[in-house]
Amino acid sequence: MRIRKIAIDRVRVFREIGIYRSIKYILTRPIVILRSVIMKATHIYENIWVGSAEDANNFIGIKISVRGEDVDQEPDGREAISLLQMIYKGTDKEVKLLINDLVNKIDNANNKGATLVHCSAGIDRSPFAIMCWLVIKKGFNTGEAYGIIKGNRPFILEHYEWVDILRKKGIILRSIL
């Protein structure tokens, strides 16, 4: 049953990106081929897309970069939001301001049109940023938010330890943890 579900999920993903192959072909190819094909900007919710830094070069619309280090701008002048250092090292007030700033920027961009939230690979920080936006602005709990993201981009990393830090700081209250 599990193999059938994986096959159906892979067929669905391949159909969405315009590649039609048999289930046998999909199941017999290494995951590396799948990853290289699937790793494109992915629509998540409303006008929000998630992707990698490479996807940002080809995306037409608003781009928000979620960085691990402390920078305000990408080399090409796009706005960047530092996330990881602040979550682990920032005070409760600093983290709350950063997350609220991040969520507000995503929300404002969503209201203006197609928006790509990206990090270097599109599987780590950017899905987490979109999860924060879905929880804080759209009223989902963390499980529902990750379910929406993972349903559209199945290879994301779920950082429940980051969610736990934000919950302890009082930023995310609708957590399933």
Task: Explain briefly what this protein structure is.
With 177 residues, the chain is α/β, with parallel strands linked by helices.
What is the general shape?
globular
CATH class of the largest domain: Alpha Beta
- Largest sheet composition: 5 strands, mixed
Question: Runs with pLDDT <50, length 5+?
Answer: 1-8, 13-38
Query: What distance separates the N and C termini?
Result: 29 Å
Looking at the overall shape, the CATH architecture of the largest domain is Alpha-Beta Complex
Helix share bin: 40-55%
Q: Indicate the mean pLDDT.
A: 75
Count of helices? 9
As a whole number of angstroms, the C-alpha radius of gyration is 17 Å
Spatially, the strands of the biggest sheet line up as 1-2-5-3-4
Relevant terms:
177 residues; alpha/beta; Protein-Tyrosine Phosphatase, Chain A; 2 domains; 5-stranded mixed sheet
Description of the molecule:
The protein has helices at 2-16, 23-28, 31-38, 53-58, 84-89, 92-112, 125-136, 142-152, 160-168, and strands at 42-45, 48-51, 62-67, 80-82, 115-118. It is built from 9 helices and 5 strands. By secondary structure, it is an alpha/beta fold. Helix 7 packs across helix 8 (142-152). The chain is globular and about 35 Å long. The protein folds into 2 domains: 1-38, no CATH class; 41-168, Protein tyrosine phosphatase superfamily (Protein-Tyrosine Phosphatase, Chain A, Alpha-Beta Complex).
Topology:
Elements: H1 2-16, H2 23-28, H3 31-38, E1 42-45, E2 48-51, H4 53-58, E3 62-67, E4 80-82, H5 84-89, H6 92-112, E5 115-118, H7 125-136, H8 142-152, H9 160-168
Parallel strand pairs: 2-5, 3-4, 3-5
Antiparallel strand pairs: 1-2
Helix pairs in contact: 6-7, 7-8
